[in-house]
Every structure is written in structure tokens, then in C-alpha cells.
């Protein structure tokens, strides 16, 4: 299929409903955020096991804090892009039944998506690593200790050395095993469980579409693969939905 045929086919699948969206960092790059694994991504210039880990939080907090302040904290001027907005629109219209995301930026929710499952947690809310009580964004960014126990404040992300949230994993497993169409947006699909859920969907008979600038290891089993910008392709898909 050429580009136009792929957009028309995806439009047909989305209109049929029971769609699950799986998003990675490539979706948020169109809002101006860095991705992780490309040659210019965050991990190209930083060691995640050292900087985004429980060990760094507990033993090297200053470096941990500077990493999150400089690289990962989402400023207010970063807004959901057209891809986030189209996904939210499709959910509101009843076509998308859930979003599984590797992203921690909450741009899906800010765009209006409701049923969002965050595999890697999120930057908010801020909490104390020691006592678990809430803290403020301002105190975290200033490096202020927890006002309850004096412990280190942290975002609610899943750090290296921590387990992924069980409820999100269970919901993602249920969604991917029961959908009719599974759409990957901006994930390299090189790590688990990111590469499990698309396979799970295919095993249960779903159509698989992958929209990512670079090739992924699962392109060979996908029904639709698009190596173009996500916002532009979803905009074209949306256009053809209105024509059908």
C-alpha cells in the first residue's frame, strides 16, 4: 500500500472501533520533547542506570535532581500536539477504548484522553521517596526536602530498579488482548513490555498498525507500517474518516 492507501485503511479500521493506542516518546517529540533512544535522544548523552535509578535517588540526589530538572521535567509551554488531540477525539467518539503509554509527560490527559494507562508512571504527582506523602512541584524543583519527614522528593516515574505498576500492566494486557485494532505511535518497540503488547494483539486477531519514523523489530508482523510524522499521518487518517 502507498501512503494514501494506508491512511484510508487505518481510517476504516478506526471507524470500526475497538481501537487501542500504544504511544512512545516519538509521539511527544512532536510537542518539542526529546525522545530516548535515537542518536540525539536523552540516553545518547546520559546513562539511565546511573541517573534515573533508585540508587541515584538515594545516594546521589543532587545529580538525580539536576537530570530531571534539565531533561525530563515538562515545562508549561509544552502542549499536546495534533497527534495527542486526534487520539483524544477518537476516544471521545467511541472509536478508541484505551491508551497505553510509555510516556511520563501526561500530554495524553492534557489533550483530553481519559482511559490512559501509564506503564512508566508520570512526572506528577510529586511525592516523598521515604514516606510517600505528597510534595509540590516547586519544592521538588528547588531541591527542598519533604516537609513531613525530611526525605527526598521525587516524581512518580518508574525508576531503574523499580517494578512497573501492576494495575497498568494488567489493564494493558486486557486491552491488547481484546481490541480489533492496535495502533503503535512513536515507539521503537525494542524493550519489554513495549514489544509484548503488539504481539499480544496480533495473537488475538487484531490488526496492527505501526507509525514510527524509524523501522521497528515488529514491522514484519504489522498490517500497516508508516515511517512518517505521526501528526501528519493521523491528520490524513482523520480526513479520510470524515469522507467515508
Architecture blueprint of SSEs:
Layout (H helix, E strand, L loop, with lengths): L2 H14 L2 E5 L1 H4 L19 H4 L2 H6 L1 H12 L9 H11 L3 E6 L5 H5 L4 E3 L2 E8 L8 H6 L10 E5 L8 H13 L2 E5 L10 H8 L3 E5 L12 E3 L3 H14 L1
Parallel strand pairs: 1-2, 1-6, 2-3, 6-7, 7-8
Antiparallel strand pairs: 4-5
Distance between the amino and carboxyl termini: 18 Å
Percent of residues in helical segments?
25-40%
Largest sheet: 6 strands, parallel
Global shape? elongated
* Content of β-strand: 15-25%
| SSE run | HEHHHHHEHEEHEHEHEEH
Assembly context of the chains: single chain
CATH fold label of the largest domain: Rossmann fold
For the record, what CATH class of the largest domain applies? Alpha Beta
Continuous helix count: 11
Overall average pLDDT: 91
CATH architecture of the largest domain: 3-Layer(aba) Sandwich
Nearest-angstrom radius of gyration?
19 Å
Please mark out the parts with pLDDT under 50 across 5 or more consecutive residues, or reply none: none
Keywords: Metal-binding, NAD, Transferase, Zinc
EC number: 2.3.1.286
Organism: Synergistes jonesii
Protein name: protein acetyllysine N-acetyltransferase
Amino acid at each position: 500500500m502507498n501512503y494514501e492507501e494506508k491512511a484510508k485503511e487505518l481510517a476504516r479500521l478506526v471507524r470500526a472501533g475497538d481501537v487501542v493506542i500504544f504511544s512512545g516518546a516519538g509521539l511527544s517529540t512532536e510537542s518539542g520533547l526529546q525522545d530516548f533512544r535515537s542518536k540525539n535522544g536523552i540516553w545518547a548523552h546520559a546513562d539511565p542506570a546511573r541517573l534515573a535509578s533508585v540508587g541515584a535517588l538515594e545516594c546521589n540526589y543532587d545529580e538525580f535532581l539536576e537530570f530531571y530538572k534539565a531533561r525530563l521535567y515538562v515545562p508549561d509551554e509544552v502542549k499536546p500536539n495534533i497527534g495527542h488531540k486526534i487520539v483524544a477525539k477518537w476516544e471521545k467518539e467511541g472509536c478508541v477504548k484505551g491508551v497505553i503509554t510509555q510516556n511520563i509527560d501526561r500530554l495524553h490527559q492534557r489533550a483530553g484522553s481519559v482511559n490512559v494507562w501509564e506503564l512508566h508512571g508520570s512526572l506528577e504527582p510529586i511525592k516523598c521517596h521515604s514516606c510517600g506523602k505528597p510534595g509540590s512541584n516547586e519544592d521538588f524543583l528547588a531541591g527542598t526536602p519533604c516537609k513531613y519527614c525530611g526525605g527526598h522528593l521525587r516524581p512518580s516515574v518508574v525508576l531503574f530498579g523499580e517494578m512497573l505498576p501492576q494495575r497498568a500492566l494488567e489493564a494493558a494486557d486486557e486491552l491488547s488482548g481484546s481490541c480489533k485494532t492496535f495502533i503503535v505511535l512513536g515507539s521503537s518497540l525494542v524493550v519489554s513490555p513495549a514489544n509484548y503488547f503488539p504481539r499480544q494483539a496480533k495473537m488475538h486477531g487484531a490488526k496492527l498498525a505501526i507509525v514510527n519514523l524509524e523501522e521497528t523489530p515488529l514491522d514484519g508482523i504489522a498490517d500497516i507500517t508508516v515511517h512518517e510524522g505521526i501528526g501528519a499521518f493521523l491528520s490524513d487518517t482523520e480526513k479520510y474518516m470524515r469522507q467515508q
